[in-house]
Amino acid sequence: MPAATANHTTAWTLRMPESPSDTVSLCRESQAPAAWSEGMTAKHGVVAWTRGMAPEERVSPAGYDSGVMTLLIAVFLAVTFNFRHYSTFIKTFTQNLFSIRTRANAFDEHNTMRETRVTVSLIMLTCVSEGILMYTYIDRSHLLWSSAFFGIASLSVLSAVYYLWQLAVYHTVGYTFVGPLKSSQWLKGFNASQCLIGIPLIIPALAVIFYPNFSPWLLVAAAILYVMARMIFIFKGFRIFYNKSYTLIYFILYLCALEIIPVILFYKTSLFLTTISSN
Q1: Tell me: the pLDDT tens digits for 231-246?
Q2: Of 24, 28, 27, 66, which Cα lies nearest the Cα of 47?
Q3: Most buried of 5, 126, 165, 185, CB within 10 angstroms?
Q4: Domain residue extents for the chain
């Protein structure tokens, strides 16, 4: 081997001819046999340019998933077909959220079926929005799902189950402690809070699936909106249930049993669904 070549053995190696017709040529270290490369690495260290760059997987935002877009379009169509005369329904939901009057509303008597359809469509919007936001929050913690659609659909169904569980529990507690009339007012306030919160929540929910870089700020804004809606509903419950000083103890127990612990269980269940998906 020439002297010039011997002085640069870390960068070049001599490839011996495989047949008499082949010529002797030099090749780079990355083309050298594996045994030689390992020996030289142990002696001289790793040469940066011989290692190259590991490819990174390109992660597409959830908004480019066809299943997610189909789910959103279906919810938007349900809201569009049922949400006619939206100003009247928003006024009614606002009254149900804040008012504790005992007199029945004429609107409820003549538009029960229409209001039920609007309520169902808006609850669907709320559940999908919560599913998207929870998916984004969990995905930022590097607990990746097998697909965006599976993650969002699973958490949306979980949100719907959580809503139905709250509806049943609030009905039982209200009927037991304050009677059917005030229990109905409390349930209307709960439904109104869930319907109204879905309208502003869909804005950060859509933003996070198309602009994931802004998800920290959007998640904080969504959390603030959700907490505000829950606080208004809790305040209405306090006005309905509180009539004597000792009832404050029961109200504190209600907060722990129905407003704090279920949220923790909801989050733990979300992580469990993530574990199933990753496996």
Answers
A1: 999 999 888 888 777 7
A2: 28
A3: 126
A4: 3-51, 62-278
